[in-house]
């Protein structure tokens, strides 16, 4: 287990070195931001009321993570993405409390709402304008073809 932890730490140091190398700083439309919510992770080994360990963070094979652990990590990742660079949480306390989910600040919500409103209004008006143009087109009347009966 100690070797595995050391390998994990070396991998994390390698990621930090890669991001801080400046390799990704030359693009104006691309960036890399580390989300360190798993840096200092330790899964809790809680004892249940019956005296057994709470293994609800693992699947039946005790190797893979369960839905509960995945939901905890998803919340931690979401919260990390909303935190500013340099002030990101580097741990997860696995409390399984849904109230710890961070929400975007008011300005982000306002701008998002404004953009969505603009987009929906544009789509509605564009479709209406297109429908009006189609109705305005003069309909070509079919010429009646009368033939001679030879």
From TrEMBL:
Keyword Cell membrane: no
GO cellular component, one term: brush border membrane
Keyword check for Transmembrane helix: yes
GO BP annotations listed: phospholipid metabolic process
Alphabetized UniProt keyword annotations: Membrane, Transmembrane, Transmembrane helix
Molecular function (Gene Ontology), one example: retinyl-palmitate esterase activity
Domain of life where this protein originates: Eukaryota
Transmembrane segments: 106-125
Name the record gives this protein: Uncharacterized protein
Lineage summary: Eukaryota, Metazoa, Chordata, Craniata, Vertebrata
């Amino acid at each position: 287990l100690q070797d595995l932890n050391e390998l994990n730490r070396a991998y994390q140091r390698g990621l930090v070195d890669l991001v801080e190398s400046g390799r990704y700083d030359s693009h104006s439309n691309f960036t890399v931001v580390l989300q360190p919510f798993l840096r200092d992770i330790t899964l809790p080994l809680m004892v249940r009321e019956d005296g057994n360990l709470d293994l609800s963070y693992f699947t039946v094979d005790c190797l893979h993570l369960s839905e509960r652990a995945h939901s905890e990590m998803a919340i931690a990742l979401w919260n990390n993405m909303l935190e500013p660079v340099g002030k990101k949480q580097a741990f997860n306390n696995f409390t399984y409390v849904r109230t710890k989910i961070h929400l975007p600040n008011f300005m982000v919500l306002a701008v998002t709402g404004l953009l969505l409103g603009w987009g929906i209004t544009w789509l509605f008006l564009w479709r209406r304008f297109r429908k009006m143009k189609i109705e305005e087109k003069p309909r070509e009347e079919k010429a009646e073809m009368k033939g001679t009966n030879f």
